[in-house]
Amino acid sequence: MIVVKNVVKSYKTRRGPNTVLDGVNLTIEKGEKAGILGRNGSGKSTLIRLLGGIERPDRGSIMRTMSVSWPLAFKGAFQGSLTGLDNLRFICRVYGTSAEDKIPHVEAFSELGRYLREPVKTYSSGMKARLAFALSMAIEFDCYLIDEVMAVGDSRFHDKCRYELHEKRKDRSMILVSHNPKEIRKHCSVFYVLHEAALVRFDDPDAAYAYYKRVG
Amino acid sequence: MIRSLVQSLSIQQRVIGALLRREMLTRYGRNNIGFLWLFVEPMLFTLVMTAIWSVRRAGMDIPVVVFAITGYPVAMIWRNCVSRGKKAITPNNALLYHRNVRVLDIFVSRITLEIAGAVAAFLFLVILFIYFGWIEPPQNLLKILSGLLLTAWLGAALALVIGALAERFDVVDRLWSPFSFFLFISSGVFYLVDWLPPFAREYVLWLPMVHGIELVRDGYFGRLFHAHYDIGYLLFCCMLLSFLGLAMVRQAGKSVELP
Questions:
Q1: What residues form DSSP beta bridges with B218?
Q2: Which residues contact A188 (CB under 8 A, 6 or more apart)?
Q3: Where does chain B have alpha helices with state H?
Q4: Distance CA B200, CA B207 (A)
Q5: Tell me, what DSSP letter sits at residue A167?
Q6: What are the tens digits of pLDDT across the range B73-106?
Q7: What pTM did the predictor assign?
Q8: Model ipTM?
Q9: Minimal Cα distance from A75: which residue of B?
Q10: pLDDT tens for residues B4-27?
Q11: Which residue of chain A has the CA closest to B17?
């Protein structure tokens, strides 16, 4: 479970603090799939970072009793001179699991072939996206944070990602952030709209969209 | 509480280990040429300095090679630390998306690698030069090691301070290289404190680096000159800079901007 209580987060700007989240409450149960809607710059990514424990809230608390992934959209911290395999080993070391038994799966999913053992700087952007997603799937979590993951790659890649996330891991919790309504409607059971630093919860997607359209 | 402390320590250790390997690959690459440079650079400098000083060694009763080898390679320890600490955060900030990776871990791994490399280069050169008979073996190993250790500590602490400052203020990043050059010139690489007039000694002894180099030299050829250093002062500087650096890195970690 993840319990977010009265979280406030603001960032410094030249014109004074900009409050991105103001008194946000949220509970994610084990196995629950929540979709968060919000316009660009509404604070979706900030919320995801707070949920992932990458940033700390200014006020309020976030309690995690299940393992939570890193935000999946992020293109990976790829150092150009390292190979895809080096990156896999790094991630596995950081999360304390062995890398060797994950190599076949990463090889198969990323379809990088011999390039898995070449420096990342020789990759195309599609290859990087495939590697990033394959690495995200190398470590198992109870809850996945997904920040616009479907924004990259071709449709075949999307299908594969969907299968990995929504079929193979359908027992896990998921927090899906997107400004694409279709994606969220399809996979989520609870809906939130983030608008003007506040988070509003809906159980019905249509109600969520109506609100999103009205304020957005 | 103790259990959770042990647990976080083991995570920390794991993360730093992972970062260290990553740094090793990016710093030295897969072919070992990169690693070789670590030794070639101080060796070249030592040899050039030896050559210059051999031509005009006016009244110097200390073997030039020994003087040179206890200079640059020792200063390299703190200099390399700071230069690696300076660009620690921004190029690596995407790593912070992994919750267990903290800004301090990135610093620790980079600094550790730098210290290990610079100390290894120094020891390797000394052993090599002794083997070829260019220098005598050292007189007091303990003093040399404590000099290296304290210089390494100083470099690590300074790397935290300058690294955090440079992250926040661009001007520190730019001004550090001229300033570090000044520090390097005045740090005792090119002179012994005893050669200076007494009033000048007082000034240079404000610099903690000078104490480190003098201590290493005292250990190497202490019988040949009168060394000026104060381990207490050096320790004080190390501790002060460490506290400052840790606090500043903590602050930098809070305000770091993720891509």
A1: none
A2: A33, A34, A35, A174, A176, A205
A3: 2-28, 33-55, 64-69, 72-86, 103-131, 141-168, 170-186, 198-204, 208-221, 231-255
A4: 12
A5: I
A6: 999 999 999 999 998 888 888 888 888 899 999 9
A7: 0.89
A8: 0.86
A9: B94
A10: 888 888 999 999 999 999 988 888
A11: A93
